[in-house]
Structures are given as C-alpha cells and as structure tokens.
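Treating backbone geometry as a discrete language has practical consequences that deserve illustration. The sequence in question and its structure tokens are set out directly beneath this paragraph.
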Amino acid sequence: MAEDAEAAAESGGGGGDPGVGACEPGVAPIKAQYRTTKERFHQYLDADKREDAGQETPAGDPDGSDPAEPEAKRIRLEDGQENGKTEVAAESPEQQQVPKRARGQNKSRPHVKPSQYDKERLCPSLLQESATCAFGDRCRFLHDVGRYLETKPADLGPRCVLFDTFGRCPYSVTCRFAGAHLGPEGQNLVQEEVVARCVHLPLVRNGLNRALQQQLRKRQVCFERAEQALRRLTQGPMPVVVPEATVATVTPDQNSCHAQLDTAGGASTPSGSPISTCGPLTDEDIIRLRPCEKKRLDISGKLYLAPLTTCGNLPFRRICKRFGADVTCGEMAVCTNLLQGQMSEWALLKRHPCEDIFGVQLEGAFPDTMTKCAELLNRTIDVDFVDINVGCPIDLVYKKGGGCALMNRSAKFQQIVRGVNEVLDVPLTVKMRTGVQERVSLAHRLLPELRDWGVALVTVGVRGSVVPSWGHCGFPGLLFSVSLVPCCLPCPLSPLTPPPSFITAPPSPQLHGRSREQRYTRLADWPYIEQCAKVASPMPLFGNGDILSFEDANCAMQTGVAGVMIARGALLKPWLFTEIKEQRHWDISSSERLDILRDFTHYGLEHWGSDTQGVERTRRFLLEWLSFLCRYVPVGLLERLPQRINERPPYYLGRDHLETLMASQQAADWIRISEMLLGPVPPGFAFLPKHKANAYK
C-alpha cells in the first residue's frame, strides 16, 4: 500500500500536474511530490472501497457535499476555487450575497442518541448478581436472555478491554466483546488474580451518588455559606460572623445524606448540627481559611491542557497526560444543571487518577446559582482549582448573560467572583477573552479588579483586529491565565516540567487573544497580551491558543507569560506536549497515530462502557476528535517547519494509504477509521461534527 501511495503521489500530486500549483498564502507548504488535486485525492481513497460499493455509505457522498450538512458547512468543506475561495455563480453585484460565516455549532446535524441503536435492551438487574428488578411486570426492558441474544449484533472483536484490564466485565452478555469472557453456559467469567490486583488501584473520582442526586432533585439541600455570602454581597457590610464549615445542610429527615456530603468533602459537622462528628476535630472544621491561607496554585512553567467542550473528555485527557500535559481541566459544566443533579453534567467533573493537577470549569450568569454550585462542589468533589468560564462565545450561553457576556456585566461579574471565592477552599481561576466586540478590549481593565476580588488565576482570550507582524510568533488564538493570589516562586523542575530553557519568565497572569466577535478568525494580538501581562504583574499569566510547535511555545514565553495553555493544538496533535518538553519535531507515522486512536477507544470503553451504548458513545467522541486530527500535516511532508495552525492543509497524498486517509476532511472517511477500531457502524448511522470550522478563513 505504501508503494501505491508513492506511485500515486508521483503521478497525481507531483509538480508536473497542471492542476497543482505552488503553495498559496494561508495554505500549509507541502512538498510538491505529495500535493495533488481534490479529484485525484478522492479517487485514490475510493479505489480500495469499490469492492464494497454495495454497502450503504453512512455519511455523504464521495464528492464531499454531505446532504445532511447545512449550506454554511458545505461552504467550509468545499474549496471549489483556487486560493481557498468558494465558487459563486456569475451574478450582478446587487444579486451577490456574502456567504454566511461558518461559526458556532451545526445545529441541524443528524443527532441520534447511542441508546437508540440498542432497541432490545436487557434489564440491568440481570447483569447484577443477586439483584431483582424493582419494576416487575412494568419493566420496559427484556428479561429473557435467550431472546436478547437472538437480536444482539455480532461481537466487534475477540478481546474485551474491561475484562483484560480489571479482570471482570460488568456488562456481561450485553458487552459487544462478550465472547472473551462468557463461559460455555453463558456465565460471566472472572479473572481472580487481576481483580485482586485492581482492588488497591485508585478509582475515577467526582462521581454523583444516588442519594445526593435525589437530594438535589427534590431541592432538599440548604446552602448556608452561599446564602450568607450572597447576603453580604447584596446588603453591603455585615457584622463579622464565624462561617460554618459545612457546605450544604439538609432537612432533618435527610440526615444520612447530609453525613455523606461532609464525609465526601473531608470535613466534620459543626457543633450546632444534629449530626455527631467522626474523627479528629481540626481548626478547619470551625474556622474558615483566610484567602492568604488557601492552597497555592503554583503551575508556573507547566503545560496546561485547556478545557475543551466535547473533545476535552476524560479519555482524551488521559491521552494528553501520557504525552506530558501537566495541568488538566474538565469540560465546561453549567451550574444550573449541576444543581439539578443531571448525571450527564456531573460526568464532566470526573477525574482520572493520572490527573495529578486537575480543575473543573463552571459556567453561569447569576451570583446565586454560581455561589451555591461552588459550595456544593467544594465538599463533594476532589479538585485542585475551580475555573469560571467568562470566555464562551456561543449564543446559547451569551444571550443568557453567561460566558463572555459577563465582561459587560461588571456588577454581576464581581458578585459571582466574590461569592464563589468566599465559599471555596481551593483557588479560584477565571477564563476570559479580550472583550466582546472586535475593537473594544476590556481585559486590561478587568485584570486589576480581578486581583482585588481574590481570583487565583485568569485565562483571557485575546484576538487582535489587526494582524501584528510578529514574524514566526504571529500565530492565532493565544490564551492566557492570570494568577491573582499571592505569587509563588516557580516550582522545582520535575521529569514532567519543561527544560530550563523553556522556563524564562517569572510568575505572571494568563490571557487569550481574541474577542467574542473574532472567534478564531484573527491572529492573536501579542502586543496586547504583553500589555496585559505587565498590568497583571507580579501575578502569573499563562498563554494558550494555536500553539502547534515548540517554537510557538518558546515565542509565547518570550512575551512574559509564566506558561502556556494548549487548546486546539492538542486536538490536532496531542503529542505536542512531548515536542515542547523535548524541544523537537516529531515525525510521527500513521501507524503510531492509529495506535493513539486505539488507546483512546480503550480508554473510552473503560469510561463509557463496552455495551452498544458505550461503544457508540466512544465512536461519537472519536469522530469529533477526528474532525480536528485531519488538519494535522506530517512533519516529513512539509517544505518548511513548523506547521502553523492558521494554515489550511491542501489536498495531498501521504506516504501510505492510512496517512492519506487520516488527511481526509470527509465524515465518511472518519467513519472508516472508526470502523478499524470499533467495528462496523449500526444501520442508519450518520455523523456531522458538532462544531463548525472557521479557522482557515
């Protein structure tokens, strides 16, 4: 297959092809022998699947114009004209309309829940030992195992990840790899030695238990510290009161749940509570920590994986941790959904044992819900910091007053920050943009105020309206974080921290160089970032965004930031953390990249399950990630290094078939890659990425 790719590259993508010209501005500079045309690219990929022409194509036609895609998305995926411009029919200037920018989400995308692929579901009580169904005849699930096995799809592989890793698969006969752990009579086998070895291993933390969920749904949780903080914020100065140590109390008939809340948080109940305390009594049980006594968030010089909606899930964070990410943060969680006990929202807070420095990000528009949510999380989950999202540009969040809309609501913003900071025992950080409008920057005005409000770290998104001439440093999307607690000295070097040549700046704040209107359509305004770093000094400032190589990271450090936060660069190549720490370019092969995807699917099956729902949920998140991975151009194919994140990859033929397949921007080809790892897709399967791409315009 590699020989075929080389031959195709010579015949179809070489410099002699009249359809392939020199590299254009804004296009990644790929060597001439690998460049090709759109037609030859798809002909090469379609050559090996003609024998399967009778099978239904799940996502669109090979021409790339998916019928399920809205017009704005098709404009982005198709480049019908040279120079990356969209073909427009010859019309008069009055009739021509400016095409709508591809931004936000694909709201009209086909969305099928993974549970709909498993119509005949077996009752969960049959999978649990010595358990009876509480619904009896009213249960809507199957209780006949034989009937279930008749309709169950074929196994996807001979080995079960859960069985090999933990010694027992809790999904039993519903597992899509059940043949690996079912006995001759259909019993679920157990590897006692592996189970005994895994008993002492740390588990995934920050889950939502059933008792707390019922409490939240019935609104039986009382937030005493939050209410006291809110009264002080809304009514002005109040007499000094010794705050209680509990985060949440409940009505007298819910004492058992209340005890569970305190146990999970590691704090005892105060003397005024009807619940007796267990264990030693410490000062923290009756006296709140002062701001200067809070745990210090010292991450200067460390590599920070930014919170990434949809793609920043736990399996992906495990991949990044393996490649050298030091600090990780969960996906954005909506505070109102957390207070309602939604299991899907609480899943965003889960923390894997490998995440040694981990935080969660909250989004909200009002002080009461944000403060109560912070009080709840303060005792029920284990995190090193809590981050407030003040940078989300999505209309659904912005129009409700959340996200970057808080930058224009300074009064509410101050109440949220002060209230959340008062009920937290861990550092509070803020992630924000430069502003809301393109030419109106607000970050430099807010940084001193955030410092006075007690914020520990700020991430500001800054996008310049005018592209600065910073040479190689002019890359888009830098995100920064500002540390607003008393400054700490940089921590000693460890095997996971960057080399001394990378740590060049003292602690300072962080900033993201874009406004809401700019999204990802401008280069980062580094002069403004440097200005904000001086304003925030001596607090640490982290830079993040569009960093795609160790040269980009080194240039970011020269602006005075304390470290870098990696966002889309980690989605394009998660091994970027290794490149930065080892100060080298990694010409990773297609087989190595496929192994990374295979590890992601293994982590996904561990996290979401190995039944049909778990497999299809893993596939969905894999496909979302592949929509970013396809933009990576291998090092060996580039005419000059490094690749820049704002350069659009042209059509090219890789060094082997798999490398070419991974370069495709068609959902149908991403599905083919997923089938290599998770087996065939269910009938009627369709996929369209959640987020639109607008970075190359």
Observations:
- The chain has 24 helices and eleven strands.
- Residues 590-608 form the longest helix (19 residues).
- Residues 10-16, 54-96, 238-276, 463-516 have pLDDT under 50 and may be disordered.
